[in-house]
Amino acid sequence: GPMIRALRNCLIEPAVRNLDPDSARFTVAHRDVLRQKAILRRLFVRFYHECRALDEQWFRDCPGLRLEIGSGSSFFKEVFPDVVTSDLKPLPFVDLVARAESLPFDDGSVRAIYAINVFHHLPQPRLFFGELQRVLHAGGGVVMIEPYYGLFARMLFKRLHASEGFDMVVPQWETEQALGAMSNANQALSYIVFTRDREILRREFPQLEVSLDRPHTQLSYILSGGLNFRQLVPNWAAPAVELAEWLLSPLNPLLAIQHTIVLRKKT
Q: How far apart are CA 208 and CA 205, in angstroms?
């Protein structure tokens, strides 16, 4: 309603306020926000380490390159220099311009793909899964961090973004979206595909299996304001926020706003 809109408007991060979400300037602004917000920066470093740890755990001795898709404002490569970064937009700080649905790599040449808040922006997930079956080496896979669908997440995401929805009951996976657009995404897509329609996924893409689906992260993301909203606590509070988050972690099935999914190509 109007009250939610007014509150959202008041909390919006000034650096991105008047920028088009589909523009390169928006991504550059996000990169600056990420560098300035210690709580968010530390959270993303944890994400990068989690992606790498899960890669080591699930893809073990699998050969091939490590690729980040939708790199945008990410600084994954600064933490792990061997990662190849890619984005839809031609940005000065990514290695290559590529769509997740048509990757410029040989069959079976990729060990791991990292995708942080990328999957729900893909207008045609089936093309992405087909491409995963092609480029991944057997035993390799993708590590995704996505919006969750627990009680708190549902309440939050339905009200959070003007340009992105959260619709758990939409029948199809595909969204009507301009090529290369960030807007008009459905943040419930990971729930729809990996939970609600997991049998359909298994039937249509028998080579891919969901190895892990773990909810996490509430306070750090919310109190940092993420990339689009103002930070709600000072930077020096980061360790206290992380401690509180750890103490609350048993309640993650209810409170989590994100989850990590590992999708593996069978050997």
A: 6
Sole residue written with tokens 């960030």: 182
User: Tokens in use for 116?
Assistant: 């942080």
Please state whether the predicted TM-score (pTM) of the whole model is above 0.85: yes
Cα separation, 223 vs 100, in Å, equals: 31
Residue 47 tokens, joined: 């994400």
Pairwise CA distance, residues 117 & 138, whole Å: 24
What backbone torsions phi and psi does residue 25 show, to the nearest 5 degrees?
A: -60, -35
DSSP for residue 201: H
3-state DSSP assignment of residue 184 = coil
CA 155 to centroid of chain Cα atoms: 19
Dihedral of CA atoms 153, 159, 165, 169 in degrees, nearest 10, equals 60
Residue-wise pLDDT for 240-260, tens only, equals 999 999 999 999 999 999 999
Among residues 238, 236, 214, the alpha carbon closest in space to that of 42 is found at: 238
Q: How many CB atoms lie within 10 A of CB 153?
A: 25
